[in-house]
Design brief:
2 copies of one chain form a homodimer.
Chain A lengths: L1 H20 L6 E6 L2 E7 L2 H4 L6 H8 L5 H4 L2 E5 L5 H9 L4 E4 L9 H6 L3 E4 L3 H13 L1 H10 L5
Parallel strand pairs in A: 3-4, 4-5
Antiparallel strand pairs in A: 1-2, 1-3
Helix pairs in contact in A: 7-8
């Protein structure tokens, strides 16, 4: 079970690294339906000057307009715990299962997702934490601005 | 007070009508900071084949990457009650006040927004309901597909 999840998480990590190659924030996501990746995406805030293209949003957008029954039968993999917005898109399309790489760098509203019936699995991967840790160490000012933008800490 | 809100809601309605002109779903939004509109947007699901560009998301994206303290001092106007995703972006950027045109066509997680400290004002405008009613009457199959996509009704 965990091996299957790790296989797809590796694909999400690959997306995160694509962002890094573009001097972006290394967060990536993939959407899996019937054992196949149907969408891939990564954080494009810096590269695209976007305020909505988190890795998860980019992934959902890249997956195209799926049928509702397909969303409702999918698993979403993301290298970092989804924020309020990305948790929102999970709830909008009723994606039932979300596998996250880690939630130490930042944690989204995980309890709320669970209350709304989403199954959440945290792989707690050193690999994902390390990607973010190194990025933040190299880019402390950029990261601080990102945190100010979303009001963290309160 | 209500007059000030209506002035900005009219700008959101204007956005909704832009969507209609492109055969899109008539939902629009504007973001207001210090009495000025700093972002405008409308639903582009059909026109752009997007799965994330609701009116509110388009508006936030078009506003650009604002400072956190500016988001936290803004009011968001949207012609329809924000869905889970759009409520999520409101929470992510900690926008404190949301004015909606109506919530009869569809209602988002309004109680959750309130619980999280967002001030929600429903102008309950016939004008907004009518835009959606006429659109749905003219495009019943498109609308039905949209509802299936988000699993409404459950």
């Amino acid at each position: 079970m965990k091996e299957k999840h790790y296989k797809f998480m590796k694909a999400a990590i690959k997306e995160a690294k694509k962002s890094l190659d573009e001097n972006g924030i290394p967060i990536g996501a993939v959407l899996v339906h019937n054992g196949k990746i149907v969408g891939r995406g990564y954080n494009k805030l810096l590269q695209s000057g976007s305020s909505i293209l988190h890795g998860e949003m980019d992934c959902i957008n890249n997956a195209g307009r799926l049928k509702g029954k397909d969303y409702r039968n999918s698993t979403f993999y993301t290298t970092l715990s989804p924020c309020d917005m990305c948790s929102g898109v999970i709830l909008l399309y009723k994606i039932p299962e979300v596998v996250i790489g880690e939630n130490e760098t930042l944690a989204g509203p995980e309890n709320y997702l669970k209350e709304r019936g989403v199954k959440l699995i945290n792989l707690d991967l050193e690999e994902c934490k390390d990607l973010m840790r190194k990025y933040i160490q190299k880019n402390p000012e950029i990261w601080e601005k990102e945190l100010e933008r979303i009001g963290v800490p309160d």
